[in-house]
Amino acid sequence: MKSVFIAVRVSLLFMIVCGLIYPLVTTGVAGVLFPKQANGSLIESGGVVIGSELLAQNFESPKLFHPRASAAKYDPTASSGSNTAVASSDYAAAMAESIDALKQENPNLTDIPADLVTVSGSGFDPDLSPEGAKAQVPRISKETGISEKSLNDLVDQLSKARQLGVFGEPRVNVTELNMELLKQVKL
């Protein structure tokens, strides 16, 4: 019976330490050392939260860069990728439809980056490849009157390299890109 009381006391001690103290301390430390990330990497404009660097948003205006397609319809509470197998006829039909829609919106597009027609694994990936963003430049230039060179320079300026030089792929955050673009153009 004595060993049962010891086991209960040790269990309670570990529940308090691991379930209460440790999470509170790590949350506090994260909030002090990384306040932006600890609060969801929110993007503000004029003191108003307009989104997060971590979640894609749907931009439909032809004057703005468009993100990857979202299987969750850009709803962060409904994260989901596609369960469609690459070898299925449904997937091939969906890709053909995505390619047709992309070509209709961007008629001069000849080389199609995969991230413009495929859905991200989470359903709301906020980043595009620099090539995916640059593929949209002719459309945006035509719609806004901003030169293609200026738009390509903007994409280059906001592009991020591989993490630590090896992890991931070069990328550009579509929301940040559009925020900078909105400073130059009125919708």
TrEMBL record:
Entry annotated with the keyword Zinc: no
Entry keyword Nucleotide-binding: yes
Main location per the UniProt record: membrane
Membrane topology: Single-pass membrane protein
Compartmental location: Cell membrane
InterPro entries xref list: KdpC
Bilayer-crossing regions: 12-34
Key words, A-Z: ATP-binding, Cell membrane, Ion transport, Membrane, Nucleotide-binding, Potassium, Potassium transport, Transmembrane, Transmembrane helix, Transport
NCBIfam families linked to this entry: kdpC, PRK00315.1
Protein family (similarity comment): Belongs to the KdpC family.
Quaternary data: The system is composed of three essential subunits: KdpA, KdpB and KdpC.
Function: Part of the high-affinity ATP-driven potassium transport (or Kdp) system, which catalyzes the hydrolysis of ATP coupled with the electrogenic transport of potassium into the cytoplasm. This subunit acts as a catalytic chaperone that increases the ATP-binding affinity of the ATP-hydrolyzing subunit KdpB by the formation of a transient KdpB/KdpC/ATP ternary complex.
Name this polypeptide is given: Potassium-transporting ATPase KdpC subunit
Organism: Paenibacillus alginolyticus
Name of the encoding gene: kdpC
